[in-house]
């Protein structure tokens, strides 16, 4: 039914959530130095404020993926909005450092639900130009970073970091106003045996897009006439059974039974890991994990290097600037480099459906490495910001393209969980990144920090080049059996 009005509304809703996530991440560029000054924190304590957010995202990325694959995409992003908005708003009223760390960890747990929205939007987009539309979806992340940079520049000098935290949490609450009218993914409904509900959503898409729903019966991918359950094994539900046996209540009962059988193993990660590390997926899964780790480590490192190189270089060279001038330079530099995300996404959108996902990521990672290498030597502020600007263009394009590839490589039954697990591994890179970008640079070890980034980037590029197959132009798969060998 093409990409029409229905998909535009889905894009706006999920994009608003993605922008809200970006705003919470970009806060880390501003609040660290302000909180450090107010509470006399050490560089290590300052870096922990950033690291705990990614630690929370590590937990949330897996948890919300499992919730999404078992209870639906809508339930997944409902809870993420509640947790992110609530903990983000309460962070503005913390009395001490410990409370701030705890609440920022909870914000991270909520932010871990980002892959759920990505998978939800992906399942409504036609395969022919899916890559381009997913890049457009990623523009909302850039909108969020630019909004947060603008908000920080306007709020921090006058109202302080508490007001910034409170105002930045509002977009997450806005998602709740429109939650009641958001549809469930028809792919998810069909995989759960809820064909009547899936057809209802498809009819809504057809009406809004002014298209005619094709005639025929909606079926799931199946083997020997049997629908596959969540573990990729034949379920008792027969697609061609008598209609009286396919009532909605019967389908719900069977879904509950299937979920109860696997609930314990899901909680213990055993069932999910068995699927993700199965013969058909193990190569893609392990290489994706390494690729996501390196991309996330570098992306957040480049963001944090903006303030880290500025403050660290001044401290190491015993240069003292007026506090007002120092803050103005920081806000200006963060805003300028945030603008780099726009050309980064445009560049990614131009090449992703032309040369493919894998080659795009590899090329942009090596180019990022080339722009970071001159920072090993002492540069003036203009050259430093220029190099970081172009590095951020390329690493933004790289991580965006990898985020498109990841959900495409997994079948519908484990799409959110598989992408969520890869995203969880990327958060490990986010946890470690502040310790390098902030702690090492502030400790006058800039050369070691930059060289570590270079090593991680090159290894990540090599790992991505060995991913098993290209997903450009391929239709999404619903079951393990439909995946290529």
- Mean pLDDT equals 77
CATH class category name of the largest domain:
Mainly Alpha
CATH-wise, what's the superfamily of the largest domain? Answer: MFS general substrate transporter like domains
CATH topology of the largest domain: Growth Hormone, Chain: A
**From the alpha-carbon coordinates, what is the Rg to the nearest angstrom?**
23 Å
Runs in which pLDDT lies below 50 for 5 or more consecutive residues are 222-245, 261-268, 318-325
Percentage beta strand: under 5%
The name of the CATH architecture of the largest domain is Up-down Bundle
Could you say which overall geometry the principal axes of the C-alpha atoms support? globular
Q: Which H/E pattern describes the elements?
A: HHHHHHHHHHHEEEHHHHHHHHH
Percent helix range = over 70%
Query: Largest sheet at a glance?
Result: 3 strands, antiparallel
SS-based class: mainly alpha
Query: What count of domains describes the coordinates?
Result: 2
Q: Strands of the biggest beta sheet: in what spatial order?
A: 1-2-3
Total DSSP helices: 20
Counting DSSP E segments of at least 2 residues, the number of strands comes to 3
End-to-end Cα distance, whole Å, is: 30 Å
Subcellular location: Membrane
Membrane topology: Multi-pass membrane protein
Protein name: Major facilitator superfamily (MFS) profile domain-containing protein
GO molecular function: transmembrane transporter activity
